[in-house]
Amino acid sequence: MRLLKLLPLAVLATSLAVTAPSMAQEDKYLEPVVKEAGKINTSAAGSQEKINKMTDQIDNKLQQFKTINKEIDGLLVYNAQLRKQIDNQLKEVDDLNKAIDEVSVIERQITPLMLRMIEGLKQFVELDVPFLPEERSKRLADLAGLMERADVAPSEKFRRVMEAYQIEMDYGRTLEAYSGLHTVGGQERDVDFLRVGRTALIYQTRDASQQGIWNKQTRQWEELPSSYRTQVTKGLRMAKKQLAPDLLSLPVALTD
Question: Does the structure show a pLDDT above 90 at 32?
Answer without folding.
Answer: no
